[in-house]
Design brief:
mainly beta, Immunoglobulin-like, Maltoporin, Chain A, 22-stranded antiparallel beta barrel, five-stranded mixed beta sheet, 11 helices
Length: 1011
């Protein structure tokens, strides 16, 4: 009986256990981080099944599960936790940070890599670095943040071009700008480098991007990192990654700001009384008149300049600089929405910028929108798209070399009223009054840009995937320039010019990625693929004249069509590339890459080129003899070598024999326009890099030290031909250039407490370049005030050497610098500039650049400031021969010309004032200035409302801030500003200024709101 009862009880217990463990029940709980804060969007899955859920905004979850099931809690940046379901109905979990997932990730082109195991030299900026500098020019965020990267805004115009040089000059005649890659889409200059489009001045190539859509910017500086882009990587590569949705609760962000601008620095000019004093004296000293005749000449000119006003009584004292410049305004508003679940990630953003520039008549209005989507269709297949649209409308002004630009108004006499009594612009000024154009003409540019990418990723195996990307970049620029009958220098009843530039490129990329860890020791990543890029460009323009009314301002309103152009341009790239990285035990690192590029731009004999690269690293701190060190946190040695190319060597057809249509006696014909060269190819750069990365005291002190050497050969030159050849020159690859430099980066966490933290980033770099060989047996190549000479830097300044003033008679003096019979240099002086020999007098590029950024956090306050410094560059003031020449002609003079020589024995650097005499007006080092400076590039102070306040408002963040750009500049530079450059032909005349605007000093107040 006992036996039967015992069996019965066993069966009953088993049945009860089966019911207990087989029955589903509701499990609920919360998930927090290490600080006890709730984590929304945590994935909660039943292991071995597809059943799952996510935590809500408060970190709570609820899921149906059976006893014995295993719940898996996973969240980006946190360690995954598993919990077994038992008899309990509540399971609370606390997740810990996963340091391995939090390692800094670097975008390397066709993939990513951990900063720790990187063997290349790459500088990274995050969205925080970018958003702290509210400015329509995105590249300003790079200033002083990356060692070896010089960022210079051409001038203070709202659309002004940006020059970025990565590790100095790498070309003489070819392109100097880096390759920009946006989400894997290579961007090119839509104008193709043509200066016959628009007003002849370049615009910013990234003008259509806004900061709120950017997640990070990675700058590939050495050959090992940039070689994956082969023939386009010699000037460095800037990889721009836009934002993606992140797992968790949907986020909404709003930013609104208002900025106020003024010029950083303007020069002082003579007022009316000073002008009369100096030019009267100059007239009396003129060698072409007696003192009385010279004074009469000056006074007659004063009568003309003053018009109907009385200059003797000081009736008019016009400050033309104040009229040319104005207070600027900048309004910004942007928003974004983002989020993700286990399968779908999304990011939507929009931005609006309205900027009134510091130069009269110069304005910009821009609107941007972006959509980034990705979806995991199956466990193996993922697809997505990125799409952006922007519209930028610019009210442009003339380039620096045009009389109609407001910036040349400073040449006008203060005796001339800007306007007549009836309020209309005064047409009787010394030079054309720019106000006639400002009120009777316009130059409007509208840029519409659409950049899109569709992509798919298929995982054949967990370690093997195939990516296929198709991207499209459409750039449309229309320009309308109308000059009414009262516009400056207008000889007809109005003139209209309209142009249309349509530029498109499409890129088709396919690449496979293999990524696997073997035996927990051998980590291998291999990428291999192909890429095809096609560029199309179409440019048309038309000009008409004779308008019945200024109200009819389009081309069709003119009675006569006087000119028209039409150009179609095409080019293409075909590429094959591969890259392999290997690390052993996470401390022995190797990488190799190769790319083979073919381009239609190059000669038929050299269409393809091969660009290999190798690098290696050793994380010494992982070795047993250092691993337990309490002082040394990290130490890595790395070295790299590679070859790169520069394909930007003169448009789409630099190697072809070209003909152009001509008219002869009203008959059509053909004429040779360019001789062909079937051997023309890209400039090739070979670069070696040696670096060390270090960290001390748990990485509270960390940094990098690099030395690099960069040699460029096959430099592009336009080599002169004999006249009988039928062409003036031919494009050839002749010449070599050597560059080298040192870069140092230091990051410190100075103070870290619960309520206060202070961190510092410092970087400094030194770069030099030297020409090693040139065409025609190393013959000097002189262009204007520049020379390319073996043994000197690229485009060195080549000028007479100014020797000051003869104290006996006030003559301007120049050093002869002729060669004596014994080979020495004759340092005697002469007052005849034609007798003085020109010498290499300066370098247009800085040899030393530095940046210092400090970030301080105190309770709810944040404070950041960045200093920028440059040393070793010179700038030539091309307008100096008119504006600072001791009253040689009637252009208004800079205030320093009052310190002129007046009597024997005077010691000064300003010659005697002599009207029309050319005393010191020759191009010389008199107008060359050292451009060393230290600038407070940006400073920002913010305050975030406490959580106890914003929680009641339903917000996750509310921050108000005050930001200033270019607030302070320390310099001895004698002209407008050490960052102002001419926007005309800057490629051939680097380091020159010509009535160029200084950059803007901007103070911005704003608010960030996150939901």
């Amino acid at each position: 009986m006992k036996t039967k009862l015992h069996v019965f009880l066993k069966v009953l217990i088993l049945l009860l256990l089966q019911v207990t463990f087989g029955q589903e029940k509701t499990i609920s709980g919360s998930v927090n981080d290490q600080q006890g804060l709730p984590l929304p969007g945590v994935n909660v899955l039943i292991k071995g099944s597809t059943s799952g859920t996510q935590t809500d905004f408060d970190g709570n979850y609820s899921i149906r599960a059976k006893s014995g099931d295993i719940l898996v809690f996973s969240y980006l940046g946190q360690k995954t936790v598993e919990q077994v379901v038992g008899s309990q109905n509540t399971i609370n979990v606390q997740l810990e940070e996963d340091a391995s997932q939090l390692e800094e990730v670097i975008v390397v082109g066709y993939g990513t890599q951990s900063k720790r195991t990187l063997t290349d030299n790459i500088s990274k900026l995050t969205s925080d670095d970018i958003s702290e500098v509210p400015n329509p020019n995105l590249q300003n965020a790079l200033v002083a943040k990356a060692a070896g990267v010089q960022v210079t805004q051409t001038n203070g115009k709202v659309e002004g071009g940006i020059n970025i040089r990565v590790r100095g000059a790498a070309s003489v005649s070819g392109g100097t700008q880096p390759l920009y890659v946006l989400d894997g889409i290579p961007l090119i200059d839509p104008t193709g480098g043509r200066t016959d489009i628009g007003n002849g001045a370049p615009t910013n190539p990234l003008l259509t991007l806004s900061a709120n859509e950017i997640e990070s910017i990675d700058i590939l500086k050495d050959a090992s990192s940039a070689a994956i882009y082969g023939a386009r990587g010699a000037n460095g590569v800037v990889l721009i990654t836009t934002k993606r949705g992140k797992q968790g609760k949907a986020k909404f962000s709003l930013n609104v700001s208002q900025g106020f601008s003024e010029p950083t620095n303007t020069r002082k000019w003579l007022n009316s009384a000073q002008y009369i004093e100096l030019f009267t004296e100059a007239g009396r000293n003129s060698p072409f008149f007696t003192p009385e005749e010279g004074q009469a000449e000056a006074e007659a000119t004063f009568d003309f300049l003053a018009g109907d006003t009385d200059w003797r009584s000081g009736e008019v004292d016009t400050n033309w600089s104040d009229i040319a410049f104005q207070n600027g305004y900048q309004s910004d508003a942007d928003f974004s929405m983002s989020g993700a679940d286990a399968k779908t990630a999304y990011f939507f953003s929009g931005a609006y910028n309205n900027t009134t520039g510091i130069i009269r008549g110069n304005e910009l209005e821009r609107a941007n929108a972006r959509v980034n989507l990705s979806h995991q269709l199956t466990t193996k297949f993922k697809a997505g798209m990125n799409m952006s649209f922007s519209r930028t409308e610019i009210d442009r002004i003339a380039n620096d070399n045009a009389f109609s630009t407001p910036l040349q108004a400073i040449a006008q006499s203060p005796l001339s009223p800007a306007r007549l009594d009836d309020g209309t612009p005064n047409p009787g000024t010394l030079y054309g009054n720019f106000l006639l154009d400002a009120e009777n003409a316009f130059f409007k540019t509208i840029i519409r840009r659409t950049v899109g990418k569709a992509y798919g990723e298929y995982k054949f195996l967990p370690s093997l995937s195939l990516n296929s990307d198709f991207s499209y970049d459409l750039f449309s620029q229309t320009e309308d320039n109308f000059r009414g009958q009262n516009a400056l220098f207008q000889s007809t009843n109005g003139e209209a010019f309209a142009s249309d530039l349509g530029s498109e490129s499409y890129t088709f990329s396919n690449y496979a990625t293999f990524d696997k860890l073997f035996n927990d020791r051998h980590n291998i990543n291999v990428v291999a693929g192909t890429e095809f890029i096609k560029y199309n460009r179409r440019i048309t323009s038309v000009t008409s004249q004779q308008f019945p009314s200024d109200d009819l301002s389009t081309v069709s309103g003119g009675a006569e069509v006087t000119a028209g152009t039409g150009v179609n341009l095409k080019s293409s790239f075909l590429s094959y590339f591969a890259r392999a990285t290997y690390d052993l035990d996470g401390k022995y690192l190797l990488k190799a890459s190769i790319r083979r590029d073919g381009s239609s731009r190059f000669g038929s004999n050299v269409r393809f080129g091969t660009f290999p690269a190798f690098s290696g690293g050793w994380i010494i701190s992982e070795e047993d003899f250092l691993k337990s060190s309490e002082t040394l946190s990290f130490l890595k040695l790395r070295a790299s070598w590679g070859k790169l190319g520069n394909a930007d060597i003169g448009g789409d057809y630099p190697s072809l024999f070209l003909f152009s249509g001509v008219s002869y006696n009203q008959r059509p014909g053909l004429a040779p326009a360019q001789p062909g060269n079937s051997n023309l190819t890209w400039e090739q750069s070979e670069q070696s890099d040696f670096g060390v990365e270090f960290g001390f005291l748990d990485n509270r002190i960390s940094g990098e030290l690099d030395y690099y050497k960069k040699d460029t050969k096959d430099l592009l030159f336009s080599v002169p031909l004999v006249p009988s050849s039928g062409a003036s020159s031919i494009n050839q690859n002749i010449g070599t250039l050597a560059g080298q430099g040192i870069e140092f980066v230091l990051n410190t966490k100075n103070i870290q407490t619960d309520n206060f933290s202070w961190s510092t980033n410092f970087n400094i770099s030194k770069n030099t370049n030297e020409l090693k060989s040139l065409p025609n047996e190393n013959a000097d190549i002189v262009t204007g005030r520049h020379i390319n000479r073996v043994g000197e830097s690229v485009a060195a300044f080549y000028l007479r050497e100014y020797a000051g003033v003869d104290p006996a008679n006030g003559d301007a003096l120049y050093y002869l610098n002729t060669e004596n019979p014994d080979g020495s240099i004759n340092r005697d002086t002469t007052n005849d500039p034609d007798e003085a020999q020109r010498v290499v007098a300066g370098n247009p590029f800085p040899e030393l650049t530095a940046g210092l950024t400090n970030t301080l956090l105190f309770d709810n306050f944040d404070f950041t400031f960045t200093f920028q410094g440059e040393w070793g560059a010179s700038i030539y003031n091309g307008g100096g021969i008119y504006q600072s020449v001791n009253a040689d002609y009637f252009d208004n003079q800079s205030i320093d010309q009052l310190n002129r020589w007046q009597q024997p024995g005077d010691i000064t650097n300003i010659p005697q004032a002599r009207l029309y005499a050319g005393n010191g007006t020759a191009h010389s080092t008199r107008f060359l200035g050292d451009a060393d400076f230290i600038r407070l590039r940006n400073i920002s102070l913010g305050y975030s409302l406490p959580n106890t306040v914003i929680d009641k408002m339903g917000l996750s963040k509310l921050r108000v801030y005050l930001t200033a750009i270019n607030l302070l500049t320390i310099t001895n530079y004698p002209f407008e500003d050490p960052e102002a450059r001419s926007d005309v032909d800057g490629q051939n005349t680097p380091g020159e200024t010509f009535y160029s605007s200084p950059p803007a000093k901007t103070v911005t107040v704003g608010v960030n709101i996150n939901f």
